[in-house]
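Morning!

This is the sequence you dropped in the shared folder:
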Amino acid sequence: MIKREPVLEFVAGLTDGTITGLIVILSAFLASLSAQMALFAAVLTVTAAAVSNFSSFMLGGKTEDVADLLVLKALMDYSLRDIPDKEERIKSLKIIKHLFAILGSEITKSNLLAALVCSATTFLAGIIPIAAFLTLPQPFGFILAA
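The structure's back. Tokens below.
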């Protein structure tokens, strides 16, 4: 549930950003776009990919974590039924309620970090080759970027 090392998010962002950057570079090259038009298309396309990855990882992480929390809650509820003393059961339920509040907060932070890592990696992996393509003289810019 809590992701301390967002390796998958980094790799996904790197892959999506690289593919997006290559598509923009090839499109700009084949269409003979000016540097301004290519830059506009690049920023728009890479930003769209980054925003898409952000929402995908944020919402996907939330969905998975809610399912895990529901299973965990059911297991804890089942375990608490075995406590014969009513006061002890109520104390245990309060502790579990606080535990789920803390766990929910940590999960939200973890999902936000994962989404930010993925979207930032996507943007950077896409924009760096595009910048090389636009700033270096041809054919070096095209060769280095591709």
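Headline: The chain has one domain: 7-145.

More detail when I'm at my desk.
O.
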